Request: fold
Amino acid sequence: MADFGATELDAFRTEVREWLATNYPAELKDPGATTDPEAVWGGQRFVGAAGDGDPQIVWMRRVAEKGWTAPTWPKAYGGGGLAPAQARIVEQEIGRGGYRSPLLSFGLWMLGPVLLEYANDEQKLQHLPKIIRGEVRWCQGYSEPGAGSDLAGLATRCEDKGDHWQIDGQKVWTSYADKADWCFCLVRTDTTKKHEGISFVLIDMRLPGVETRPIKLISGESPFCETFFTGVKIPKGNLVGRLNGGWEIAKRLLQYERQNISAGFGEGGTAGGASGDLAEVAKSYEALTDGDLRRRITENKMNFQALRQTIARTAAESRAGNGPSAATSIIKYAAAEFAKERSELMVESMGVQGLGWSGDGFSEPERLAVRGWLRTKANSIEGGTSEVNLNVVAKRVLGLPDPK
Ligand SMILES: Cc1cc2nc3c(=O)[nH]c(=O)nc-3n(C[C@H](O)[C@H](O)[C@H](O)COP(=O)(O)OP(=O)(O)OC[C@H]3O[C@@H](n4cnc5c(N)ncnc54)[C@H](O)[C@@H]3O)c2cc1C
Reply:
C-alpha cells in the first residue's frame, strides 16, 4: 500500500473537493429537496417516479463510476483502490460538503467485506461490481423465529441435491427483504453439529419458492419481513467459503455490521445528532431551567465526544490492522446506550410536545423526534442485542471464562 505524505494527501483532498462540487446534481443542492427515499438504496426493484433520472440515482452512478462508493475495494471489482488515508478524505469531504450519501447498502457494509475475505474469484466478480454500482440490493437472512441471540440454533435446511442446493425454512426480521434482489443467508447443512453445521449461501430473491411477508409496525411502517424458503433451488456455486464453515463468516460479517452501525456516530455520521443539538432544543422549550436535566444533557454531550473519539481510534486500528475485531461490540453497545439516552432527553426536554408522533398540534421536527425516540428502542436489539454484545466483550475482549 502506497504511503502518502501530507503534500500528496492535501493535493488529493483538493481533487476530491473539486470533483464532488462539479458532479453533485444541482437538484440535490437544496437541503429541503425531496427525492424518493428508496432511491439511495438502489437495486433492480427500485423504479421511482423519475426512474433512472432520479437525481439520487444520477449521484450514485457518478460516485460509483469513480469507485468511491467502495473507496478501498480493489479496482479489479470497480472499487476505488484507494489507500485508507485517501478513503478517509473522500468520506470527510462528502460529510464536510453536506453532500448526500451516494449509496446505502447492506452489500457495501456487510456482504462485500466478507466476500473479499472468503469468496472465490468467480463470486467476487459476479457480485462486488454490482454492489459498488448499487445495481443489486441485498438483505440479511440470519434471524429465525427460534434463533435470534442464539443464532447458531438456526434451522433453515440446505440439502445437497447433486447439481444444486435446496433451501427450506423461515427467516424473520429480514430488513427490506421485500425490496431486496438477493439475500446473504445462514443455513443448516449438518444437523448433527451446531456451530460446525452452518453454511453461508447467496440466494436470488426472485427464485421460485421465495416468499416475503412484510411485518407491519404500530407506526404503519414495515421495515422488515418474514421470509419463507420452500424448495428453493440455488446453484452449487452460491456457497461462500467451506461447506459447514459458515459460522466463521457469519461472525466476521457481524463485526462489519456492528462497526457500520457505530460509524453513524463517528465523524461525519448523523446518528448522534440527527434531530438537532440537544441543548439548543432544550433551550427552545425553556427546559434548561431544570438543573437535573441540564446536568444529564451535559453528561450526554460529553459522552458523545468520548464515543466519537473512541470510534475514531478503533476505526484507525481497524484500518491499520486486519479490519474490525470483537472490540466493535464495545462501540455497538455504547452507541446504542448513548442514542437511547439522547432521545429520552430530547423528548423529556420537549415536555407535552414530546408525546405525539403524528397529527395536528405537533410540528414536523417534534414528530420526527418522537419517532426517532421510538426507533432508538431497536438500537439495542439490531445487529445483536446489548446483552449479547456484552457477552462478546466479556469472552473475546476481556478473555473471561465462558460459564457454559
Ligand atoms: C431494527 C431491526 C432490524 C433487524 N434486521 C434484521 C435483518 O435484516 N436480518 C436478520 O437476520 N435479523 C434482523 N434483526 C433481528 C435481530 O438480529 C434480532 O432481533 C436479535 O438478534 C435478537 O434476537 P431475538 O429478537 O430473537 O431476541 P431473543 O434472542 O429472543 O432475545 C430476547 C432477550 O433475551 C436476551 N438474551 C438472549 N440470550 C441471552 C444471553 N445468552 N445472555 C443474556 N441475554 C440474552 C436478549 O438480549 C434479549 O433482551 C433486526 C432487528 C431489529 C430490531
